[in-house]
Design goal:
- The protein is an alpha/beta fold.
- Among the domains are: about 15-70, no CATH class; about 345-490, Leucine-rich repeat, LRR (right-handed beta-alpha superhelix).
- Helices cover about 30% and strands about 20% of the residues.
- Strand 15 (about 480-490) and strand 16 form a beta hairpin.
- The radius of gyration is 24 Å and the shape is globular.
- Mean pLDDT is about 80; it is low at about 1-25 and about 505-520.
- This is F-box domain-containing protein.
- InterPro entries: LRR_dom_sf.
Length: about 525
């Protein structure tokens, strides 16, 4: 789903903080009554600006009046991230007398989803039952406001009538998508019979090697899919065709250049091919550049890094004026016409050596609006890690979010902390992934505390480490993952850092987009 809600300025937090501080001086009963008397429009404004859905849920428990008011916020976006959540939530939806499903606008269903960071075995669920239950919810009128639906099972829905049920019963549905498993895509699938879509997603599920070996290297996507997108969806705003780097399957996406979607704002092409057998590379590169230049509304663009895809981008100076979020390789970013306006950059397709980082830093210095950076470094033991980190941080001093992964060799986190201390970067969120020596067990809470002390603006920190190197970022064998939140200072003036534990309660609900945000499928 693509939200068209206009951005509104945030509430003044000072009066709200003063109210909360004043309220804490009274007993809990008085606190509860104080909150329950807040006007409902103010409650909704506050809830929409709370980052954590668990905090919104806690706010909704202050009174039955506020709980009923916040139901549209709590249930606007539902992501059933496991078989257990699918079973429990769908059974609740089918039997619920409160009919909370009428608030659902975005629904993601992930039966038999495997979380590689979890060591608990996955209890399988019958995907046919899930399909039939979703179809029943749709046909009985329980999903009247559904605008976006994505299926993330072990394969495409076995009962293809799911798509026809959603199409016939959910009249506001304009964004659909599915993943693809080992089975061949049915060209006559009901999935390809939608009209006037605003968003479409097709992703190839990463399969075990013994399955992946027998897949055709470059299967053709059905003509019906392209006809639906190019001929019958002129108002398309979001398109994702994605294949994992780990997969041997490579979809041929050359026909995407035939599309002309004036409202296209989000384009994501995974490791797909733009050069088929017998095709001229220069001809396809030229066609793709003309395609990009013909879509000035693009705000988010993700390009693959395969050798069968254009390695460089050569565009007119005025092309892509609205591009703010870009993901690609180093060669792609060099020729982007609006580098100073890019706010988010991802360079995680391939690891960057020490020498390559120096070249990237030269480009980053021109990206004066950059606030979010995701980057994958491949530094050997002889590299000067401190110098690399310091150069990187000095090249983008406006960063507020950094996602840094370092593979190949163990290194001391003190080197990164020292580089951060000497820089002018004021991070609010940090994700750090690295290799640790097998004999050590790092104290992640202590590391998070030192990071927060070094960078007082830090509010959230995720630390991940592995004992071995990795080939792809989506297949890192994590030894441990720690998520931390920085609280206010204690009475002694020291920062309080707490590890955020997993909560089973309502983990499948996501915060509703506040301003224009392109919904993420995963």
């Amino acid at each position: 789903m693509v939200s068209s809600k206009h951005w509104t300025p945030p509430l003044a937090m000072a009066p709200l903080a003063s109210l909360i501080k004043h309220r804490t001086a009274f007993p809990k009963s008085h606190q509860r009554n104080c909150v329950s008397r807040v006007p409902l429009d103010i409650v909704i404004e506050i809830a929409e600006r709370i980052e954590s859905i668990e905090d919104i849920f806690s706010l909704s428990l202050t009174s039955s009046r506020i709980h009923a008011t916040l139901l549209p916020v709590l249930y606007a976006s539902v992501d059933l991230r496991s078989s257990r959540m699918c079973r429990n939530s769908i059974e609740m939806f089918l039997n619920s007398k409160s009919d909370v499903t009428r608030y659902i606008r975005r629904l993601v269903v992930r039966p038999n989803h495997v979380d590689r960071r979890s060591r608990q075995p996955v209890k399988p669920i019958d995907e046919r039952w899930v399909v039939q239950s979703i179809s029943k919810l749709a046909t009985t009128g329980h999903l009247p406001r559904l605008t976006s639906f994505f299926w993330d099972g072990s394969d495409m829905p076995q009962d293809d009538s799911l798509w026809s049920a959603l199409r016939a019963s959910c009249h506001e549905l304009r964004s659909v998508g599915s993943n693809v498993g080992p089975n061949i895509i049915d060209p006559e699938s009901e999935l390809f019979k939608f009209d006037d879509l605003a968003g479409f997603s097709l992703t190839a599920k990463t399969l075990p090697d013994e399955w992946d070996t027998f897949l055709p290297p470059e299967p053709d996507l059905p003509d019906q899919l392209w006809h639906m997108l190019i001929e019958r969806s002129p108002h398309l705003e979001q398109l994702r065709i994605d294949v994992s780097q780990r997969s041997r399957r490579v979809w041929d996406t050359r026909r995407v250049v035939q599309g002309r979607w004036p409202h296209l704002r989000d384009l994501e092409l995974g490791d797909c091919s733009m050069v088929g057998n017998g095709s001229s590379r220069r001809l396809m590169e030229t066609s793709f550049m003309w395609f990009l230049a013909a879509h000035p509304a693009l705000e988010r663009l993700r390009l693959p890094s395969l050798s069968s895809f254009p390695k460089a981008i050569v565009l007119p100076p005025g092309a892509l004026p609205n591009l703010r979020d870009f993901s690609g390789n180093v060669a792609h970013i060099k020729a982007l016409p609006n580098l100073p306006r890019i706010t988010a950059l991802s360079l995680v397709h391939q690891p960057l050596s020490e020498k390559m980082v120096s070249l990237v830093c030269g480009t980053l210095k021109h990206m004066r609006s950059l606030m979010s950076l995701s980057i994958w470094l491949h530094l050997d033991a002889q590299a000067d890690h401190y110098a690399v980190f310091r150069n990187l941080l000095d090249s983008c001093r406006g960063l507020t979010h950094l996602d840094l992964a370092c593979s190949e060799a163990p290194w001391d986190v003190i080197e990164f902390i020292s580089a951060l201390r000497g820089s002018r970067v004021e991070l609010t969120t940090l994700n750090l992934t690295r290799i640790e020596p097998a004999a050590s067990e790092p104290d992640l809470l202590q590391i998070a505390t030192r990071l927060a002390t070094t960078n007082p603006s830090l509010r959230k920190c995720m630390l991940r480490y592995s004992l071995t190197t990795w080939v792809f970022l989506d297949s890192i064998p994590y030894r441990r993952v720690g998520s931390f939140e920085v609280k206010d200072r204690n009475q002694q003036g020291a920062l309080v850092v707490e590890e955020k534990r997993k909560k089973s309660c309502r983990r499948y609900f996501y915060r509703r987009p506040l301003s224009f945000q392109l919904s993420k499928w995963i």
